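[job 0417] fold request received: Methyltransferase domain-containing protein
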Amino acid sequence: MDNQTSYIIGTDDHSELKTYSGRKYHDNEKVAYLLPEDSDESSRLNKQHLVLRYFLQKNFIAPIDKQLEEGITVLDSGCGPASWLFDMAKDYPKSKFHGVDITNTFPEEAKLENCEFVLGNIGERIPFPDNTFDYVHQRLLLLGLTKEMWEKNIKELFRVLKPGGCIEIKEPDLRDLCNMGPLLNSLQGTLSSMLASRGMPLKISVELEGRLTDAGFENIDHSILNLNLNHNGRVGDMLWDDYYHGCMNIRPVMAITNPAYEDLEAYKVFLNECSAEAAELKTDIQWHTCIAKKPLN
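[job 0417] inference complete; emitting structure tokens
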């Protein structure tokens, strides 16, 4: 293998794009992802990774440090611009890392021998053989999968994981924030209505444990951390900046449900008011992590 990151271009479910307010969004019934497909969103996802790593102080919590150091095969499902994947590949050079996503936002200038990328729709089929991976990582897809896609996705994660392998899935609860005031409740209510109209479960974070059990996983550990939204110093500021950026990027789609969001300047004022409310009330987002094993038999 040469010194270049390996890229495999898949052929399943290529996604067409449509434009709202100057931003490109997916326009394919098999792709539910609601955030835009452009350089600004890729930049947001890269910054989001740094924020989460800063807050959590590591990239994973599954008890697999020793295996990663010795060398295992890892999948990052829905990897986006591969921020998590590249961090892990640098930290664990003996392990082999694979990323899969619906669009090619992988950084082509990267040069890591132990990374490989493939295009694929994780809500339909993950393009790898059965029993391929020792560890599977997936996070932040609540705005990307319908209820039916989640069912297929978790079954696919089970299929590609080796017997005895470990899975780690992480999702926030964006419907019921802790210490949520009326402004954020209104914003999250609009998001909830929009997702419900598209068959997407906003409370997937609290459903993960049950869905993993139904798919056949065992030894499930479900933990919850509170992410401080615009309070508790630098980390709260960083989390709010990411939340604000995400709200701005999804605004054109949210405006279909709530026409009041069509006015960009008014929307910015509204988000700034939400910011002050979150700081005053010390609002938190609950971050759910589920770690589980695929049975040996």
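[job 0417] notes: The helical segments are 39-56, 65-70, 83-91, 147-160, 182-197, 204-215, 234-257, 264-281. Confidence is low (pLDDT under 50) at residues 1-14.
[job 0417] exit 0
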